[in-house]
Amino acid sequence: MRRYLFLTALAVFFSWTLIAQTLLSPNGNQKLTFELQNGKALYSLEYKGKSVIKPSLLGFEIKNQPSLADGFSVTKTEQSTFDETWEPVWGEEKTIRNHYNEMAVTLTQASTGRVLLVRFRLFDEGLGFRYEFPSQAKLAHFVISDELTQFAMTGDHKAFWIAGDYDTQEYDYTESRLSEIRGLMEKAVTANLAQLPFSNTGVQTSLQMKTDEGLYINLHEAALINYSTMHLNLDDKNFIFQSWLTPGANGEKVYLQTPAKTPWRTIIVSDDARDILASRMTYNLNDPSKIEDTSWIKPMKYVGVWWEMITGKSSWAYTDEFPAVEIGVTDFSKAKPNGKHGANTANVKRHIDFAAKHGFDGVLVEGWNVGWEDWFGNSKDFVFDFLTPYPDFDLEGIRDYAKSKGVQMIMHHETSSSVRNYERHMDRAYQFMNEHGYPAVKSGYVGSILPRGDNHYSQWIVNHYQYAIEKAAEYKIMVNAHEAVRPTGIARTWPNLIANESARGTEYQAFGGSKANHVTVLPFTRQLGGPMDYTPGIFEMDISKINPNNNSWVNSTIANQLALYVTMYSPLQMAADLPEHYERFSDAFQFIKDVAIDWEISKYLEAEPGYYLTIARKAKGTGEWFVGNVNGYEKRNSTIGFDFLEAGKTYVATIYADAADAHFRNNPQAYTIRKVVVTSKSKLSQASAPGGGYAISIREASKEETKGLKKL
Amino acid sequence: MRRYLFLTALAVFFSWTLIAQTLLSPNGNQKLTFELQNGKALYSLEYKGKSVIKPSLLGFEIKNQPSLADGFSVTKTEQSTFDETWEPVWGEEKTIRNHYNEMAVTLTQASTGRVLLVRFRLFDEGLGFRYEFPSQAKLAHFVISDELTQFAMTGDHKAFWIAGDYDTQEYDYTESRLSEIRGLMEKAVTANLAQLPFSNTGVQTSLQMKTDEGLYINLHEAALINYSTMHLNLDDKNFIFQSWLTPGANGEKVYLQTPAKTPWRTIIVSDDARDILASRMTYNLNDPSKIEDTSWIKPMKYVGVWWEMITGKSSWAYTDEFPAVEIGVTDFSKAKPNGKHGANTANVKRHIDFAAKHGFDGVLVEGWNVGWEDWFGNSKDFVFDFLTPYPDFDLEGIRDYAKSKGVQMIMHHETSSSVRNYERHMDRAYQFMNEHGYPAVKSGYVGSILPRGDNHYSQWIVNHYQYAIEKAAEYKIMVNAHEAVRPTGIARTWPNLIANESARGTEYQAFGGSKANHVTVLPFTRQLGGPMDYTPGIFEMDISKINPNNNSWVNSTIANQLALYVTMYSPLQMAADLPEHYERFSDAFQFIKDVAIDWEISKYLEAEPGYYLTIARKAKGTGEWFVGNVNGYEKRNSTIGFDFLEAGKTYVATIYADAADAHFRNNPQAYTIRKVVVTSKSKLSQASAPGGGYAISIREASKEETKGLKKL
């Protein structure tokens, strides 16, 4: 990630005191205007001559100080251009171009002598801007009571939104006009105790919108480091969003000292939804990798002892005997097993065998360590030690068995959101992973935060997630953090953050089900900041077949599940279903075995948030291509070309598609698999069922291999 | 501490369901009555037939559950006797007898099925009792909203009190009737931003009272582990105190899981004030040492680079250049020094020389590490790294120089109450101490707690102090924690906690001055739970002579300062004044050089809280005795005998006393030193000035040494 293939940095500096200034993106499509009106600072954005953001205020309320929101004069303005190409350790593309025009406006508040700088970076796909507080005696240590940044919309746009919340993003998306958010808020909050909206018009980022004129607008943030997570609160009379920062335990938002900078506030905009998916702006606004040697960071495809607990077939806990467990004191060796503990040695070895047989890199095991008897909902401080296995989990035996089979064990650190406890044990827990050869950890932050009263998305806890990532890097450990704050591109800087959950994942399909079009929204929202450990690959949609007491239904077809391996980009991909289900549908399972997890090129063929998207990706190294299409609630014909393939070459494509009568609700396991010959000139018209989709694997073929195959 | 010299444990068990039961102390002076009245549990205490505690309620409010305060029946009662003698690692005596009668009452609340046990231990000097919550399905994890323990006084006693406060005990004591507390509260709070009373009748423990009948009653707690610090709130119509627990950031008091136990609530009572000082009940109610090898725990007498900063002559900070410091980023090597940095190499070496010359064990240096420029009042998270010295502090050079002089360096870890930051750096900081040979650390918790919103005395932060002590023990490090919670005898269990501040120390004599009788109260209050690093030994009372901008006056005479080395017991004793002041009064300084810091026997000769106390102690090993007398506001004649000396032996006593016209306010440096011959039959009548006192060193002498000396 630190090798720049191509670097051009043209810095042209100007300095003046005009009170309005414009900046164009490199291709001229985006136009930023900064202006001062009666001492207030405003910015606005146009795309191809159309207004996207109307003049919107900038500034802050500072605790025990005058506002830093008016009385400004512009004391300096600098413009520059930047163009580089960098190579991520893993990603949707082998190289990423970072090309923008920049304007830095220095604002001085004469009445207080305080200075604030707003740095705008205008890319062809949108705008990023942040505030910078230079070192100054009159603003040394300070507390932001409120960030006043506005995003003034031009109308009552359509939005895909989830309720603003300080602790969870695990919501289904609601599609509505901005004016309808207030009325739909109550319904948007599902029966999950962790969901607690802060306002009737508060929503989370990334927020994907669409205007009546067909503009796609996305609001998010980049490089959330040492700051509070930004939500958006809507003035639904004027369609103005204002930043709403997550408070800490004492109600305050952000503690800073100068020099300081905020995260970038980002606005991605295009008249083509595919450009939203293709944007790398969020990564580009983050710093280059701070990890020198990244050779140990490697994408992984994995299975796990997990879905059986999620569905309620087995348990994380070993025993039902103890009303309360005291780590280091409670004696599990004499406890009566509950008979349904998933993380037992035999079951784990069965999964290792399965992984080895089918070429998976790793096996995740949850519930291996003591403490699951009372881990949830008890505000328990010393809840896990991350070291001590249950009596039926033979840690060394499993470690050696996995090694003998060429499979890597993936560690699991559920913290129960007891953050101090995790930090106290972190060094030892990471050392333990090193000692036993675990390359990656799935960490979890389920439940209310300890220190009590704090929130998952406050500055204090954001700093914890960052601490966990940086400390893991010291130990050469990859992190896949669940229930942590949604990512903002920091994996560019810390590429050992290989995935996050931080949205409503597949588990909710066993908790009552998610919307069938959920996966057509996530790539426009959650995925912009970094990969999601969505844990796809569910083949058995009737959860009651796994656990008679669980009547959940997975709102998806098998073809849709396969497509997710392409559409939900992640360097960490799970095949989440039970091994026996894969053995039952071994022909469909072949796609999961074949699909790559690291990419040279990605092509966004079709896209409409909430309705469909089709992506083609070229695997790194092998020359193979994989295509995924996911579809919303309505049956739809997807039409794509294959001009991404090398001209003149012949390929064999295996198409895994919904059967004609497939449907997420009543016929999800109806799929067809066919092999066809394709070239760069081929076209495909393929129907996708409601909640369905298709997946295609494509590899170059000799003439002999194409014999008898139909040409597309 | 783990060797029991003598151990008798007679356990006699009874079981019945009577609703009132009494227990006598081993000598029969104390009588506890436990009774049930309409399902409510009450206890009361008598001393020599006089009521001390009237029937007082027991119980709890539990969050989201019915009260655990009524509807009780007694389902089991057990009585037993315990008698052991144990040997502390350091202390006021070589051996401590732990002798009590015990009654454990099991209470069952029929309406909920919950069970609560109250364990009473009745010593000859008072009562300790605690609540125990046995493991039970109906009370597994729970939150104490309020502890309802009452201490119903028999009248409007006199009390020595400091205001209830969640964050500091650094108050002067107020002497008043209980009924006067409300009216005096405002005045009791000095101009110190950290002082914030929670109630107009709230006071802290340990609380020393005296009845009109001449009974001395002390309320405190023992073994404060994983619980919130108890204050007392007074119903001043009925003179009933109720426990007032310190809340955490979210307002809740205590999070527990069963089995659990509270700290002991203690009532020490006697008709002789000396018995309060002689009580070891607080230690006895704590568990035996958990440190196996205690050979590395050694009392220390030390000097330091400290008083010069406290008085404002020099500074902790190295430079005045930076409005804000970023640890690891700010470059101090190029900063302009402020010219008054105390912790510079030359000054430290001067102190090492002084320590070596006069036989001190150690040198404390504050302000050695970067971060002091903006450490206070900024709610700064990453405020210190505990590793990086300022450019003018040659860590290795100083370390080697000290070693060559046979002096040990004492580490200083000011945390600025940024507790998470300290825990993140603690392992490395302790390792660093091991690497450089620092045997002890003075830690500090000045300012508001981080995590923000929490309090110094909440369960969460109490757990931090404990974590720091136990982690230090792993590294064989002694801890002297300042601004931490006041001690409750846990040094029995963790004898590496060699001292605390946790009260108004000598530093306040340079912050405007403390009351002249302050040191006649502390041994009855603060000192009951463990030694105080009071930092005595101030010889120059006019602080403006050190710093012309500081008009503070030390309200004490030199003789009083010397006596503190005896009366304020601590295994860690500082000679706090500047070396030049000791050189000026080298004859008085001799006592500080001579006085022991670890004791075989202590004899409490005279005592009246707020007025005077006289203590004689025999040094461990040498056979020398030292006597200290401190006096309150009125000039007083102290009359003591020397029958603690071995009969038939002749000793030389050096008496350091106030001159006839000495006075803490206008003539503090007037003292006399005389040598006399004493035997076990000698008597001394010695005047002590207002705010004065005397100190005596006594050693066995040959006949030749006694020649020409007057016999007392």
TrEMBL record, chains A, B:
Location of the Glycosyl-hydrolase 97 N-terminal domain: 24-288
One function term, GO molecular function aspect: carbohydrate binding
Gene3D superfamilies: 2.70.98.10, Aldolase class I
Organism: Mariniradius saccharolyticus AK6
UniProt domain Glycosyl-hydrolase 97 catalytic: residue ranges: 306-503
One of the Pfam families matching this protein, by short name: GH97_N
Name listed for the protein in its UniProt record: Alpha-glucosidase SusB
Domain called Glycosyl-hydrolase 97 C-terminal oligomerisation: residue spans: 598-698
Keywords: Calcium
InterPro entries found in the cross-reference section: Aldolase_TIM (IPR013785), GH (IPR017853), GH-type_carb-bd (IPR014718), GH97_C (IPR029483), GH97_catalytic (IPR019563), GH97_N (IPR029486), Glycosyl_hydrolase_97 (IPR052720)
Record note on quaternary structure: Monomer.
Domain of life: Bacteria
Cofactor(s) needed for function: Ca(2+)
UniProt cross-references to SUPFAM superfamilies, sorted A to Z: (Trans)glycosidases
